[in-house]
Every structure is written in structure tokens, then in C-alpha cells.
Design goal:
Bound molecules: adenosine-5'-diphosphate
Distance between the termini: 159 Å
Number of helices: 24
Helix content: 40-55%
Strand order of the largest sheet: 2-1-5-4-3
Structural class: alpha+beta
Length: about 775
């Protein structure tokens, strides 16, 4: 200390180099610095220690009275200046603690001590002093102060019970008066009664508590334990007992303790525990994914479900961020929703969890903002919606299909949702009835109002039957008239399905209306046609009957007078030949021929009317035999015309004989009759098997027929020649046609005038 005193007493500026070094070492060791204020020159000087203390390099801070004052903390500045003035005016010792501001703004505490000196040589007055940095000391003192304060308040507020007991017998020797406030028992009661403490411990904790205390005491261990205690008024309170074991000669001698009531804390911590347990078990039992993470993206809580769905282990999840459970393209979405939750408090979203093995599962997340352990956190649950997504997809497909069907069908589709009382109309309502479903909003009432008034009651009654919950009627098919937008009525066939819920209530009716007006028109005209046909058939039957009656009359009643005419003409000719002139005889011949012709016509007509009427069974017929039979009947013209009739491979067939005989006899007969003059007729008969039919051809080399008359020749009485050229009645081919039709075949003709004719007909086998 002597060196220092020397230094400050000597000329500070002119000190010896070795002294300067010594001072510097001293200053750095003691964290101090020296200062000097010359009152006469009003100059100030600092040692390096002061600059160091304040964080300045000596050259960067210009020291003078003002700057030296400026670095004093403003709260201490006035006092420092005042003290200095006092020191100077009263020549006292300078001694003050003040705060200085360092270059970096930090505040330091300094203990500044100094004194006023007069230089011998110059006689100038100087104030010389030392700064000692006492910041650490002040801070420590400050801290100590607050700790002491805290301890004091702690002790003051502590509701503890101090006690002393015998370490062997556990008899209480002393207990502080607070015991009454806490337990209701006075210290007197407590000390006087034997085993008082033990008796008032809650039975559930008694044995454990006594045992613990005993064991620890024997082992000379200080110990702390909690137990429930029964108060005087019957309440149960929790006590925390801190016991100090005092030993003597290695044996427990005395126990000193402090009991504190901790009932509230116990209740709170129990409630907290319960809540945490409850939450944990709830979280774990949730069928959905649960998670909680903080704003830094650290997952703090989650349940097994998350581990299961993501396929990550608990350890892995600890290191994962919320985004890492999703595909890269979803990360922006997640960021957006996290921000939304923080800003607005809640959000929800649908996203697919991407599992560790790359499996994607759709989830619906419901996320909220939450304060957990004093920070903003985000917690949420995620519901697996795979099934929902699937059903949505198939619903979409169904809807799509339904729309395609309603568009594709020409029917008017309607779909009535009875619960919502809403009706959907398909495009068919526009194309069929002229109502544009996109322009009008149909209702079920409107649809019903369009039913024709005459049909409405019937339909209403039926609907009532169908919508009865007791009814099981499902499939509806009704026909009624439906008003079109143009004011006319369409006849509709309405097919519908009534859909019921579990209790049988009809919830929905889906239907399709078909416009059957045209069909109905057809039906009506078909009916008309049928009626006409029936009438024609009736007329035909009548005419057939009349024809038959006529034939009967002709054969019996007309034949007879004709025969009479012929025979009386013959008689007239024979008996009066001698008296009659040539002319008269010629007239008689005309009359006889006429009668004969008429007879022929009548016989032919009779034959025509009888075609197919003869009740005759089918029989096996050798066609060759049949033709030969015909040749026999026709032997006269065959002979006279020198005709050649040939046939090839004629079959044996099973059919009715008379019609077949009529066909061949007439066709061969015509072939002989309509031959070219001087050309012997050649008639060829061929046959062909054409599956279900036999086909026959009769070909001649006669005069031929102009194709113009092909149809005419089959009509009754139609002839192409006069009787002068060719004898006949015009009935032959009519009989042929009728006989072919009776045998369920057809007849056609091919011919060339001057070449020949070929008739082809079929008969059913
Ligand atoms: P008909 O022979 O008694 O006059 P058909 O009904 O048998 O009556 O014949 C109708 C008409 O068809 C005949 O008048 C004749 O002009 C014509 N015709 C029929 N068969 C032949 C044939 N083979 N060759 C040419 N003309 C024929």
C-alpha cells in the first residue's frame, strides 16, 4: 500500500517509469484506476486503469471535467457534483459510491475515494483519487438482499408446525402453537395424550407412515414423508413432515420436525394427475388419430392410432415434423392450415396420410389452437375416411350412370324425394311433353295436376294405397293421360318404384313415363283393321255359303230345266225336221249349243265351289299313276292332236287326291287346248323337292300368253280368246289356283307368245 500512496502523493504525470508499471499492475489486479482534477487549470487526467474500467482506449476519450461528469449515471450525477464541491470547499476527504456508464452502455459501480492536495512547487490545487470497481460486490449484495427478503417472507408465510419428539418413544416433547390452527388440537392435547400423533394419522396411511419414520430414524436418516391426518373436527388433511434425526453416541436421540399442511397442493396435483390420466386414456382410446405439436413443429403428444396409421414408431415420431406425415405436394396446404389455426383458432381439412411404407390413407382432420404447458400448440384429431371416400366415388359413379341413363332413355324420368318434397325431372319431359326441366321447377303436386281429370281420382287413390306404411307395394305400373305443354294429352305408361325406409315409410319414388300415344293409335287401328277383317271374313263366309247354295241350286235346279231344253230341242228337231226350214233347224242347233255351254259353265262352277270342300283324307299318291289316269280322261284330244305327254321322275307323295287331280287335269287340258295349229302339242311334267314343298312344272309348246295377262287368267270367267277359237268357260285356272292354295302352295306362270307356257306350282309336303 505504501507504493500506491507514494504514487498518488507524488506527481502523477511525472512519476517514474518503474512506478508507472507498478501502478498499472496494481490497477489491473485490483480492478481500479486513478484520477486527478487540477482546480487551477481545470484539467482532468485518468490512469489507464480508469479507461480500461470504462472500456475505452486512452486515446479515444478526451477527458475533461464535463466528459468525466457525463459518464456518471444520471441518478448519481447531482450527488457526485455536490459531494465534490463540499470536498473542495470544506477540504474534506472525497468518498462516494456512484454508477458510471461504460462505452458499451453497461453500468458499473465504483467506489471513488480521494483528497485535495496543494502542490509544493506550483502551489496548484488538485483533487486526486482512486476508482475501485465494486460492481460485482454491489450485485452480490443486491442479490443477497432479495434472497433474504424472499426467505423472510417465506418464513413469515410458512404455516408450519415445529415439533420435537423422543427418537425412541416418538413421544412429542414440543409442538408449536400453529398446530391448533391447522389440526384443531392444542399443543397440550397433543403432548399429553400417548401416541397422539400415531392415532390421528389416517388409517390408510398410518402403518406406512409410522414404519417409514421408525426405519429412517433407526438408520439415522433425515426424512420427508406425506400422510393424511384426521383433524379435531373430522376433516382429512394432508401433512408434509420433514424430520431431522439427532443422534447421540451413534444412536437416535431426538427428532426435530416441521409439519406443513399440503392438502390443497395434494388436491390440485391429484386433480391434475386424474386429468392427465383421463386425457391420456381418452386420447389413447380415441378411434381416431390424435396429435399435439407446438409452433416449432415439434410433436408433443400423440396416440397409438397415429403410430398405427403412419407405421412410424414412437421414437421416430419424436423426431418428425407434422408435414413429414404427408406427401411433398401437400406441404404447402399444411403450412396454410397451421397458419390458419394459429390466426383463427381452428380449421379442418381432408388429406391423405402417407405412411412409412408409402401407403396413402384419406383422413379428415379437425384441428384447433390450444395452450399447453404455457405455449401455443396445435392439436387435432384425424378420422380415417377411406370408406367415405370410396362410397363418395361409387355414389359419384352411380350419379353419373344415373344421369347417363336418364339422358339416354327416351322415357321421362322422375325422381321424387318425399322427405325433402323435391322432384327431379329428366330431359325426357322436354322431348316427350315439352316441359323444360331446367326452366321450370317441378313439384310432385304439379306432376299430379297434369294427369287428366278423368284419370286423376284413380291415380290418387292408388298413390294413397302405395304410400301407406303398412303396405309393401313397391312396383307401380299405370297407364293414364298426361297433359303436354301444347295442351294435348299424351297417353303414358308410368313405371315407378316406391322406396321405403325400415319402418315402411315411403321415402323416395323413382319413375319413368313412356309416351304410348302412338302405340295406342296403332292398337286402335289394329283393332279397327281386325274388326274390318272379321267383317270381311263374315261376308266371305256368307258369299261362300251363297256360292255353295248357288252351286247346289245350279246343279240340281238349273241342270234339270237345261236338260229339258236340250231334250225338247232334240225332240223338236227330230219330229218337225220335215216341216221346219233350214233357218229353223239352225236356230234349234244354236239353242241346243247354248244350253250345253250353260251346262258346262254350271258344272265348272260347281266344281270350283267344291274345291277343298270334299271331305277326303290324305293318301299316298304315285304321281305317274295320277298322270296316266288323266291321260286316259283326255285320250280324245290327245289322240286327235297327236299330242305327246311326258314326265320325269315323278315322286310318290301323300296328299289329297281330288285337288291334285283337278290341278293337273286343267293344266294338261289347257296345254292340249291352247296348242299351235298344225303343231302337235308336247307337254312335259317335272317335279322338284324343295324342302318343305314339292314343286311341279307343266310346260307346253302352245300359243303362249302375253305377260300382261298373267294375273287376269286366274280370275273366274276371264278368258283371252273367243269361244270360236277356243272352247271354254274361263273357270279352269280359277279352280287350279284354289286347289293349289288348298294344298298350301302357290302358282306362277311363265310364258312367251308363240313359244309356249310353263305353269309352276308348289304343294306343302
Ligand atoms: P278356259 O280355258 O276355259 O278359257 P281357263 O281359266 O282354263 O279358261 O283359261 C283362261 C284363259 O287362259 C284361257 O282362255 C286362255 O286364253 C288362257 N290359257 C290358259 N291356259 C293356256 C295355255 N296353256 N296356253 C295359252 N293360253 C292359255
Amino acid at each position: 500500500m505504501k507504493g500506491f500512496t507514494t504514487a498518488i502523493e507524488g506527481n502523477f504525470v511525472d512519476q517514474q517509469p518503474n512506478e508507472k508499471i507498478l501502478l498499472e499492475q496494481f490497477e489491473s489486479l485490483t480492478n481500479s484506476g486513478t484520477w486527478e482534477y487540477n482546480l487551477d487549470t481545470d484539467t482532468t487526467q485518468w490512469s489507464d486503469g480508469v479507461f480500461r474500467m470504462l472500456g475505452y482506449e486512452p486515446q479515444e476519450f478526451e477527458v475533461n471535467f464535463d466528459t468525466a461528469v457525463a459518464i456518471i449515471h444520471e441518478d448519481d450525477r447531482d450527488e457526485a457534483i455536490f459531494h465534490m464541491q463540499e470536498v473542495i470547499s470544506q477540504n474534506r476527504e472525497y468518498n462516494i459510491k456512484k454508477r458510471l456508464i461504460k462505452k458499451d452502455g453497461e453500468i458499473i459501480w465504483v467506489d471513488s475515494k480521494g483528497k485535495l492536495i496543494s502542490e509544493e512547487k506550483s502551489g496548484q490545487k488538485k483533487l486526486i483519487g482512486v476508482f475501485q470497481n465494486i460492481t460485482e460486490y454491489v450485485q452480490t449484495k443486491e442479490k443477497l438482499k432479495t434472497v433474504k427478503k424472499k426467505n423472510k417472507s417465506l418464513i413469515e408465510n410458512l404455516d408450519g408446525i415445529f415439533w420435537e419428539a423422543d427418537a425412541q418413544t416418538f413421544e412429542f416433547k414440543y409442538i408449536s402453537p400453529q398446530v391448533e390452527k391447522i389440526t384443531g388440537f392444542t399443543p397440550k392435547e397433543w403432548i399429553k395424550t400417548k401416541n397422539f400423533w400415531q392415532m390421528h394419522i389416517h388409517p390408510a396411511d398410518r402403518q406406512d407412515s409410522i414404519q417409514t419414520c421408525h426405519d429412517e430414524t433407526q438408520n439415522l436418516n433425515d426424512h420427508v414423508f406425506d400422510y393424511r391426518f384426521l383433524t379435531k373436527d373430522g376433516r382429512v388433511i394432508w401433512l408434509n413432515d420433514r424430520v431431522k434425526v439427532i443422534s447421540r453416541k451413534g444412536k437416535p436421540y431426538k427428532l426435530q420436525g416441521l409439519m406443513v399442511e399440503i392438502t390443497k397442493e395434494k388436491q390440485i396435483s391429484q386433480a391434475l394427475k386424474d386429468e392427465i390420466n383421463l386425457n391420456q386414456s381418452l386420447i389413447q382410446k380415441l378411434p381416431s388419430v390424435f396429435f399435439l405439436f407446438n409452433t416449432e413443429g415439434k410433436l408433443l403428444l400423440w396416440n397409438h392410432q397415429l403410430e398405427k396409421e403412419s407405421e412410424y414408431s414412437s421414437d421416430e415420431i419424436t423426431k418428425m415434423s407434422p408435414e413429414s406425415f404427408f406427401a411433398g405436394e401437400d406441404h404447402l396446404t399444411i403450412k396454410y392450415h397451421i397458419k390458419k389455426v394459429i390466426d383463427e383458432g381452428a380449421t379442418d381439412l381432408e388429406l391423405e396420410i402417407l405412411s412409412k411404407t408409402g401407403k396413402k390413407t384419406p383422413f379428415f382432420f379437425s384441428v384447433s389452437r390450444f395452450f399447453y404447458q404455457d405455449e401455443i400448440c396445435i392439436f387435432g384429431t384425424g378420422q380415417n375416411i377411406s370408406e367415405l371416400v370410396e362410397s363418395r366415388k361409387s355414389t359419384a359413379q352411380h350419379i353419373e350412370r344415373y344421369q347417363i341413363v336418364t339422358q339416354a332413355t327416351s322415357d321421362a324420368i322422375w325422381d321424387y324425394d318425399r322427405k325433402k318434397n323435391s322432384l327431379y325431372w329428366g330431359e325426357g319431359f322436354l322431348s316427350l311433353f315439352g316441359y323444360n326441366p331446367s326452366k321450370i321447377e317441378p313439384s310432385f303436386e304439379f306432376q299430379l295436376s297434369l294427369i287428366h281429370p278423368d284419370d286423376r281420382n284413380r291415380i290418387f287413390r292408388l298413390i294413397q294405397l302405395y304410400i301407406d306404411p303398412k303396405s309393401t307395394k313397391k312396383n307401380w305400373l299405370e297407364e293414364y293421360r298426361f297433359l303436354k305443354s301444347d295442351g294435348t294429352y299424351a297417353i303414358v305408361l308410368d313405371k315407378a318404384i316406391f322406396i321405403r325406409d325400415d319402418s315402411g315409410n315411403v321415402t323416395r319414388v323413382v319413375g319413368a313415363m313412356q309416351d304410348i300415344s302412338r302405340q295406342k293409335d296403332f292398337e286402335r287401328s289394329l283393332k279397327d283393321l281386325n274388326q274390318q277383317l272379321e267383317k270381311n271374313v263374315r261376308d266371305l263366309a256368307i258369299s261362300n255359303l251363297e256360292l255353295q247354295q248357288f252351286a247346289f241350286v245350279a246343279s240340281h235346279d238349273l241342270q234339270e230345266p237345261l236338260r229339258m231344253i236340250s231334250s225338247f230341242m232334240g225332240l223338236l228337231e227330230r219330229r218337225y225336221k220335215s216341216v221346219l226350214d233350214e233357218k229353223a233347224l239352225e236356230y234349234i242347233e244354236f239353242a241346243t249349243n247354248g244350253a250345253k255351254q250353260m251346262q258346262k259353265v254350271i258344272l265348272d262352277l260347281l266344281e270350283l265351289s267344291r274345291v277343298g270342300k270334299v271331305e277326303e283324307k290324305k293318301e299316298s299318291l304315285d304321281l305317274a299313276v295320277l298322270i296316266n289316269e288323266i291321260k286316259m280322261y283326255l285320250r280324245k284330244p290327245i289322240h286327235s292332236k297327236n299330242a305327246l305327254i311326258t314326265y320325269e321322275n315323278l315322286p310318290v307323295i301323300c296328299t289329297h287326291k281330288t285337288p291334285l287331280l283337278q290341278i293337273f287335269q286343267n293344266l294338261i287340258g289347257n296345254g292340249l287346248k291352247y296348242s299351235k295349229p298344225d303343231v302337235p302339242p308336247q307337254i312335259t311334267i317335272r317335279s322338284k323337292d324343295i324342302g318343305p314343298y314339292w314343286e311341279f312344272t307343266v310346260e307346253d309348246n302352245g300359243i303362249g300368253i302375253d305377260p300382261e295377262y298373267f294375273n287376269k287368267i286366274f280370275v273366274v270367267f276371264q278368258r283371252l280368246h273367243g269361244r270360236k277359237d277356243f272352247d271354254g268357260t274361263g273357270i279352269g285356272l280359277s279352280i287350279v289356283k284354289k286347289a293349289v292354295e288348298f294344298l298350301e302352295g302357290e302358282i306362277t306362270v311363265k310364258s312367251q307368245v308363240g313359244v309356249g307356257t310353263e305353269f309352276t306350282f308348289t304343294i306343302k309336303k
